[in-house]
Amino acid sequence: MPGHIFGRSTRGSLPIAAAGEGCYILDAEGRRYLDGSGGAAVSCLGHSNEAVRAALHDQLDRLAFAHTGFFTSEPAERLADRLAAAAPEGIERVYLVSGGSEAVEAALKLARQYFMEVGQPGRHRVIARRQSYHGNTLGALAAGGNEWRRAQFAPLLVETSHVSPCYEYRGRAEDESLEAYGLRVADELDAEIRRLGPETVMAFVAEPVVGATAGAVPAVPGYLKRIREICDRHGVLLILDEVMCGMGRTGHLFACAEDGVAPDMITIAKGLGAGYQPIGALLVQGRIYDAIAAGSGFFQHGHTYMGHAMAAAAANAVLDEIEGRDLLSAVRRQGARLEALLHERLGQHPHVGDIRGRGLFRGIELVADRETKEPFDPARKLHARIKAEAFAGGLICYPMGGTLDGVRGDHILLAPPFIISDTELEELVDKLSGALDRAL
Ligand code: PLP
C-alpha cells in the first residue's frame, strides 16, 4: 500500500495491526503475533482490555480535554493521589505528561529550577551511566549513554558525564563479591562528583533495571543504596528513570522499592497507560515542590497535552486492573516461571551468555563464545535477524544490538503482558528459541 506516513525505517513496509486479543496482536491479513515484549514494555495488560476500554468510553462521554492552564480534572487528580500514595517515601507530587522522554525532560528542568530557587545556581551538571537510555528528545538524549542514538546529534547535546553502569555480567571481577562489585561501581559516582565539583552537579540519573540498551540489567544488591548515600553526601538529586522498569514490570509497582531506595524524582510512562493512552509522569519529593511553591510559585515548563483527562482515565483504569486482579503477584509468579523456562530451554545454549532480569522483565545476552564472553561481530546484525525470524514466526520480542558498556553486542529483551498464561509463556520461549536457531 503506498503511503505518506513515515516512522522509523524508510525501507520495507510493515503489516497493518488491525486488532488485539489479550497477549496477541492480529494483522490485517489475520496473522497472530504473540506480544512477548509489550512492544517496548508498554502493553502490560495485553490488548483490548475491557475495563480500560469501558473507562475510556466513560471519560470520553464526559470530557476529553481541558487545558491545564485553566482546569484540573477529576481523573488527573485521582491518578496523582494514587501514584503519590503508592510511591516510595517522601514522593508527594506528580506532574503528568505524555510519555517517557517528556517525563525525563521535566525532571531535568525541575532539578535545575529547584537549585535556582534554593540559591545554588552553580548546579547544572548531570551525571548518568554509559549503559542507559532516557529518551530521544535532546535533554533526555544528552543524559542517555547510548552511543548509537547519540552520535550524529552530539553537537546538539549538552555535555553529560557518564560513569560505569552496574553490569555484573561483564563488570564484576571473578574474585569479587556481588556486593563489593556494586560498591566499587557506585563509588565511581562519588569520584566523578568530586572531579566536577559538587557545587556544579545537580543530578544523577539512572534506570534501576536497565532496559533497552542492555536487556533487563538489574542493579546488584546494595548498589542503589550506596548511590543514594553518595547523592546525599554531595547534595545531588537522584532521579530514577522507571519509564521501562516501573509500573509493576519487576513485580513491584516501583522497581526501586525492591532496592529499598527512595529517590528525589521518579519518571514513569509506558506501562502507566499500558498503550491505551500516551501518558507519562514525573513523581517528585515534597520538599522539591515546596521549594518552588515557596519561591517563584511557577514551574517554568509545560506541554499542551499534560494532565490529559483521557490519558489519566486510562492510567486509573490500568491501576484498577493491577490492584483488583493482583497483577503484581502474577508478575512475580509468571516472571519466575519465565526465568525457569529460559534457563531450561536456553541456559546451556552455546550462544547464550547471560539470562537476567526481574519479574516479567527479562534479558538474554548473546555471545559468540560463552567462555570468553566474546560478542558476535556487529556486522552480522544478529539482533535484527532474530527480530525478523521471531516476527515471521508470530512472536514480537525486542532484540537490540549496540554498545554494552564498551563491548558491542546483542541482547533480547522480553516484557510480556502481566496476564500471560503458562501456555503462552511456553509458546513465547518455544518461538524465541526457534527464531534464535534460525537466525544464528
Ligand atoms: N526512559 C527509559 C528508561 C526508556 O526505556 C524510554 C523508552 O524506551 C524512555 C525513557 C523514553 O520514553 P518515550 O519513548 O515514551 O519517550
From TrEMBL:
The lineage of its organism: Bacteria, Pseudomonadati, Pseudomonadota, Alphaproteobacteria, Rhodobacterales. Its cofactor is pyridoxal 5'-phosphate. Keywords: Pyridoxal phosphate. PROSITE patterns: AA_TRANSFER_CLASS_3. Belongs to the class-III pyridoxal-phosphate-dependent aminotransferase family. It comes from Cereibacter johrii. InterPro entries: Aminotrans_3, Aminotrans_3_PPA_site, PyrdxlP-dep_Trfase, PyrdxlP-dep_Trfase_major, PyrdxlP-dep_Trfase_small. SUPFAM superfamilies: PLP-dependent transferases. NCBIfam families: PRK07483.1. The keyword Zinc-finger does not apply. This is Adenosylmethionine-8-amino-7-oxononanoate aminotransferase.
